[in-house]
């Protein structure tokens, strides 16, 4: 499996294109559509785009809102990050959908200009991120991934189609982010035993094959040294939705082919969610 190089120009191009895709997905919605429930607990389509707006606003240096006790008591708020996300949403929910879209486009235009102005040293500077302390360029891959997943959230809620072939770079980066954490998931959540070999055959748009070797710890590998103990074949977008906790595996099992050790494969499929 070949991943997309994490380079400043690539991250900038992908983020700007992904923000444009989110704008297209939300353009022309009426207020009823804006308030349609999304796959994320407690969030509507409006809330999904408001969340992206909030994160990009924070990255521009805007101060965080105060987190009230009511926010922490919400059933879908599980930690401090979730509480902060919800506090931001509270500040944006009084807007109409059209006003939110205007704000999103203004914020992301500023973010695009800020990215274009960064020097090489700034791109390589390390800082805390959702995946640990990493260079800023690596952090921005998590932003591509997050925005790509949220495009799926919006289109799934509305019953529309996400971007097609032109989204290949963004989807590749999103899948790179997902597969980077896949080894830990199949061991910690899926119970893959030491010594096992696994293959995911992802089909459809942005098809790829992902091999995992478990030798003390699980690693994503270019190839396996022997046949896989279990092979899991499914569509890439379904894979993303399962990893993101957007759908439950049980109703989707007829869309997933497994071979080899069926018990192991199905246990992994049922426990792929790790990003929500």
Based on CA inertia axes, which overall geometry fits? globular
Sketch the topology as an H/E string, one letter per element: HHHHHHHEEHHHEEEEHEH
Helical fraction: 40-55%
Count of DSSP strands: 7
Rg is 19 Å
CATH fold descriptor of the largest domain: Four Helix Bundle (Hemerythrin (Met), subunit A)
Taking the sheet with the most strands, its summary is: 5 strands, mixed
- Briefly note the structural class of the backbone: alpha+beta
Number of helices: 12
CATH class of the largest domain: Mainly Alpha
Instruction: State the domain count.
Output: 2
Average pLDDT rating: 94
The end-to-end span amounts to: 25 Å
Could you tell me the strand content as a percent range?
Answer: 5-15%
Strand order of the largest sheet: 5-4-3-6-7
Low-confidence stretches: none
The CATH homologous superfamily of the largest domain is named dinb family like domain
User: What is the CATH-assigned architecture of the largest domain?
Assistant: Up-down Bundle
Question: Can you walk through the features of this model?
Answer:
This protein has two domains: 8-168, dinb family like domain (Four Helix Bundle (Hemerythrin (Met), subunit A), Up-down Bundle); 181-269, Nonspecific Lipid-transfer Protein, Chain A (2-Layer Sandwich). Helices cover 51% and strands 14% of the residues. The chain has twelve helices and seven strands. It has helices at residues 8-26, 31-34, 45-59, 69-72, 80-92, 97-117, 120-124, 136-158, 168-180, 182-188, 236-243, 262-269; strands at residues 126-129, 132-135, 197-203, 208-215, 217-221, 230-235, 257-260. A five-stranded mixed β-sheet has the order 5-4-3-6-7. Strands 1-2 form a two-stranded antiparallel ribbon. Helix 1 (8-26) packs parallel to helix 8 (136-158), helix 3 (45-59) packs parallel to helix 6 and helix 3 runs antiparallel to helix 8.
